[in-house]
Amino acid sequence: MLSTGTPATLRCAGRIASSRLGHAPSTKLSNSASLPLRRLSTAVGTPAYRSRHVGRISPLLAAGPSNPNTKRHFTSGHPRASKQPFQFLTAYAFQGKARSSEDLPQEGDASSSASTNERDGTPPAATKPQIGFPANSEIGRWRDELLRGGEAGEDSLMCTSMGMAGDVAIGVADGVGGWTENGIDPSLFSQALMFYASRSASQASTDPSTGGAPNQILSEAFEHVLKEPLVVAGSATACILTMNSSDGTLRSANLGDSGFVILRQGTGKQGVFHASPPQQLGFNTPLQLAKLPKEWAQEGSISNTPKDAATWECTLQHGDLIIVGTDGLFDNVDAKIEIPQFAKFIKEKHHASYAARHAAAGEKAAEGKFDSLEEDREFVQVLATNLVEYAKICQSSTTKQSPFEREAARYGIHFPGGKVDDVALVCCLVIEH
């Protein structure tokens, strides 16, 4: 991962809560087992746009305090000339939750991440034990190549180029953990859904008339999951976004409590242009796609279809920042307050770090300017990695009020602090040429 070697000032001791709550709300939730202290960073010591990097995240405070009056786009450069009007810089990060005492994170453990902008030939690190599809299966090989040795637990994600050059599709899925009570591995459903969605998106353009709209991609993927023999049963929430490089159109399909947020400078108090609302039937009971054998079906079973997904679209602008994630992110980090503040903080610290590192190396470009596109690529990766780390810090805190705690209180449930869960997210920075 990323390191500059300085101990963190932002630390939260914590605990691990009960695993993903079941389908129905409960008025008694248990906490147990404290987690070690974690560290957070806003800088990198090595290029962050490698295919994968693992290590410690530590802070860069030498860059100076943030100036609240400073207005900065999330991209460091101006619009550029190119064949396609829009370019999308993407990076993703993920971390599975501990599933046994042996899995509890140790000092130095951190999230895994990757960028789709660069492939530098770096071989994958040692692979962690995986749940879900066998490594020698088609979906297992796809997952392992995507995660590059990391482990996302019951979450899965996709980040792929589409059939039309420059178009991009990103998404996440969260396997519903309650299936473990029936002896079903929840990650099988989420991994299969993202695999087939990625395959469908890679063969289509973003034009809905060609089957490339997010709800169409989700529908086709779901049909394949229903036919997948290794997925006996299961369910998952899902969120898929497509972005058109010709006209900047973003389209989304969101089902359940995964979701996305779009940050745009000059929009509202915190710069939040849009935050997708969760779809829930009740407390901790999201809408979900399900594969339910007839013999298991019973009254009250939740089984939605892609037609139930909320769809939305907009035209993107230069400097827009899109973050799509599972509820492991949004249950612990406020999408409308914390995420925009955190992204701004990371951008300012990373910009100072990038300038200092390249100035020290004598890598100044013409007129003292650096390669803004390289900086932007690196920033997206740094943000993705650090946002997962921050979510894990929030999960292990019993003192910081989380969005999940506030939601529980609406139902008369006392649940202090964060909710421990898997986290998977994809970040995308929009460059308008």
From TrEMBL:
- Which ranges carry the PPM-type phosphatase domain? 130-430
Single Gene Ontology MF annotation: metal ion binding
State the top-level EC class: hydrolase
Taxonomy of origin reads:
Eukaryota, Fungi, Dikarya, Basidiomycota, Ustilaginomycotina
Which SUPFAM superfamilies does the record associate with it?
A: PP2C-like (SSF81606)
- Respond yes or no to whether keyword Oxidoreductase is given for this record: no
Cofactor(s) the protein needs: Mg(2+); Mn(2+)
What EC identifiers does the entry list?
3.1.3.16
- Report the protein name in the record: Protein phosphatase
Family named by the database record:
Belongs to the PP2C family.
User: By its UniProt entry, which PROSITE patterns does this protein fall under?
Assistant: PPM_2
**UniProt keywords, alphabetically:** Hydrolase, Magnesium, Manganese, Metal-binding, Protein phosphatase
Pfam families referenced in this protein's UniProt entry, alphabetically: SpoIIE (PF07228)
The answer, when asked if Coiled coil is one of the entry's keywords, is: no
Q: Which residues form the signal peptide?
A: none
Q: Which reaction does it catalyse?
A: O-phospho-L-threonyl-[protein] + H2O = L-threonyl-[protein] + phosphate; O-phospho-L-seryl-[protein] + H2O = L-seryl-[protein] + phosphate
Tell me the InterPro entries matching this sequence: PPM-type-like_dom_sf, PPM-type_phosphatase-like_dom, PPTC7
Specify where the region named Disordered lies, as residue ranges: 59-81, 97-140
Q: Species name for this entry?
A: Pseudozyma hubeiensis (strain SY62) (Yeast)
